[in-house]
Design goal:
The complex is a heterodimer. By secondary structure, chain A is an alpha/beta fold. In chain A, about 15% of the residues lie in helices and about 30% in strands. The longest helix of chain A is centred in the middle third of the chain and has 13 residues, at about 130-140. Chain A is globular and about 50 Å long. Chain B has two domains: about 1-65 and about 85-185, no CATH class; about 205-240 and about 265-344, no CATH class. Classes of the chains: A alpha/beta, B alpha+beta.
Chain lengths: ~280, ~350
């Protein structure tokens, strides 16, 4: 146990005060999701890893943990894409260019990209799970020669809920990205795949020794996706998931994000599947 | 370690002397049956023989409500509410309470060290006192004796009607400077302080019981009686979970952000926006609380995170007993072991 005398005064931190930043782009992208670009004061970089999150702070409303949507390669600003689903996010929908916004972070563990070098990267995104994964996708694209294949599977409920459509068009067009998309329910304009995201997995040809899978989506999705990957014999330790919890403080104190014995905001939100497999509360 | 004899009648004078260092916080009566830690105004009001205070001493380091900042909605921006480092003496503190503070130190200062907690803790001094275990105390079962002196600067051990005063640290020595009339004494061992409530196993065997007890029937038994009121976590000296909320003035021009104690026993504790609740059922929550006390942190730190004060049991409106729950787990585990060995 750490004793008080082992903690020097300069080690004590002000953990709960946000940095005041500015919204530099704001665009409603679907009925429920809005995209924001945020500039830090004095053009600082956020200094994050792909997969980390920030606490977005709005005085009078509170704070909420939000995934960072941009690659660390983007300098001078970072991106968020936020679904209007709770108290804070419903206020955020009114935020426009020039508005001040509080940011704490970046927090948590992102993807251990140094372990991914030279590997094929398989991205499996369900719904707004694409938002945190976009930080990894763009990181791989920023450093394209350092990685093997980039395979992206993206599933949404319906065509109206698709995010980052310009970028999707780019991913489709590139010959160094293998992009597959499906929607649960198509509409009259939809000509692509329909069905849940797991329907995209059986047809994949994977180099099993050399593939890393990164999965993010609604809680119900993980078990089924992991089952599909396991039936293709992809080893558990090559699977990464990013989990949602109520990460209220972001610094391992408030307790809300505990998953059995770990704090999601400290050990996660990105976990290697082998680390959470024995944890009953994880998936 | 020095030991002096201290007459019961000298105690108020000792408290007054300690007030020379800073604010003295000690147990006082609250109503007919309850006790509370509060700032000493008159040293004669301090209670030396008490079973437990309603709220634990954590309230002095992590207040139930704490302002983190004032903010202005009109002008934007905020002013941090930073706690000053001030000298305080906590007087007549029981051993399990001191042990809870040492555990909170770990939670609040290890990893990300929190400045407000640190500043409240930095110049705090602790004077311990022995107690007679009642029907709820079980600290011996988690490795904490009545006379456990770790963490204290001074300790008062009651011998018949008077006390033996132990000086345990340099800071304790400093506190006593200028307090006359103390005669050196030979430390005496006080017999007969027996704990009526006991966990059947030594605490070093509990991690194994918990390792196999995740699916135990005990959790549902407890959940069937639990009303999810959160009294157990509110009065627990090692529970530290909190929520953060903003409050805006009626003119909507400014407001403040504050943190308040929260409880993993409350229904919405693990709920996220959109309605997903990661510990929706009472059984998930009753289990989680005890695993936090006996397994998760214990695996890392080697100590039970429960200090055996008995508050969760004494103040539970449904009469749920921590010790009985664990003893039920032990019994179930023994039965399972028996059946296993019978098969072999």
């Amino acid at each position: 146990m750490k004793r008080l005398e082992d903690v020097a005064v300069h080690d004590a931190q002000d953990l709960y005060y946000p940095t005041m930043c500015t919204v530099s782009q704001a665009k409603q992208v679907t009925a429920l999701e809005k995209f924001y670009e945020i500039k830090m004061p004095d053009g600082q970089d956020l200094g994050h890893e792909p997969g980390q999150f920030v606490e977005v702070s709005v005085f009078g409303v509170g704070e909420a943990p939000i995934s960072i949507a941009s690659s660390p390669g983007k300098k001078g600003s970072f991106d968020l894409c936020i679904r209007q689903v709770g108290m804070l996010t419903n206020v955020l929908k009114n935020f426009e260019v020039g508005d001040a916004i509080g940011i704490r972070g970046p927090f948590g563990k992102g993807y251990p990209v140094e372990k991914f070098l030279g590997k094929d990267i398989l991205i499996i995104a369900g719904g707004i799970g694409l938002v945190p994964l976009r930080s990894l996708i763009n990181y791989v694209l920023d450093n394209r020669s350092l990685f093997g294949r980039l395979i992206i599977l993206y599933g949404a409920k319906n065509p109206k809920e698709l995010l980052f459509e310009d970028e999707i068009a780019d991913w489709k067009a590139r010959d160094d990205v293998e992009f597959h998309i499906t929607v649960d329910n198509g509409d009259e304009t939809w000509t692509g795949n329909t069905g849940v995201i797991t329907t995209l997995i059986p047809g994949l040809k994977l180099d099993l020794d050399n593939t890393i899978a990164a999965i993010t989506g609604p809680p119900v999705m993980y078990k089924f996706v992991i089952m599909s990957l396991s039936s293709k014999k992809l080893p558990d330790d090559q699977i990464y998931v990013s989990l949602e919890r109520r990460m209220k403080c972001g610094v391992g104190k408030c307790g809300h994000c505990q998953i059995n014995g770990v704090y999601c905001c400290q050990e996660g939100p990105v976990f290697n599947y082998t680390d959470i497999k024995p944890m009953e509360e994880a998936l | 370690m020095e030991c002096f004899s201290l007459q019961r009648t000298q105690v108020p004078a000792l408290i007054d002397h300690l007030r020379g260092y800073g604010e003295v916080i000690a147990p006082h009566r609250k109503g007919d049956v309850s006790y509370t830690f509060k700032s000493v105004q008159d040293s004669e009001d301090v209670v030396l023989d008490y079973n437990r205070t309603l709220l634990p001493l954590k309230k002095m380091f992590l207040p139930p409500v704490e302002k983190l900042m004032d903010f202005s909605l009109k002008k934007g921006g905020f002013t941090a509410n930073k706690v000053k480092i001030e000298p305080r003496v906590f007087f007549a503190v029981h051993s399990y309470e001191m042990q809870s503070i040492l555990r909170l130190d770990h939670n609040m200062l290890d990893g990300n060290a929190e400045s407000n907690y640190f500043n409240r803790r930095k110049m705090s001094r602790f004077v311990g006192i022995s107690f007679e275990p009642d029907e709820f105390h079980f600290s011996e079962s988690v490795g904490i004796a009545v006379e456990e002196m770790e963490g204290f600067d001074l300790f008062l051990n009651k011998v018949y009607d008077d006390y033996q005063l132990y000086v345990l640290t340099d800071e304790g020595q400093e506190l006593l400077k200028g307090f006359g009339g103390l005669a050196k004494a030979k430390p005496e061992i006080v017999e007969g302080r027996t704990f009526k409530k006991r966990i059947r196993y030594h605490y070093n065997r509990l991690p194994r019981v918990f390792q196999y007890g995740y699916q135990s029937k005990v959790w549902q038994d407890v959940a069937d009686r639990c009303v999810s009121c959160g009294s157990c976590t509110l009065t627990c000296p090692t529970c530290f979970c909190f929520d953060v909320n903003d409050h805006v003035t009626v003119t909507a021009e400014d407001g403040m952000r504050q943190r308040t104690w929260d409880s993993c026993m409350l229904t919405t504790f693990a709920e996220v926006a959109g309605g997903e609740n990661f510990r929706e059922k009472t059984v998930n929550r009753t289990r989680h609380r005890l695993y936090r006390k006996f397994k998760y942190i214990t695996d890392e730190e080697g100590l039970p995170w429960c200090v055996g004060c008995g508050r969760c049991t004494a103040f539970c409106p449904a009469g749920i007993s921590m010790v009985d729950t664990i003893n039920d787990m032990i019994q179930e585990d023994e039965k399972a072991q028996y059946h296993k060995s019978a098969k072999v």
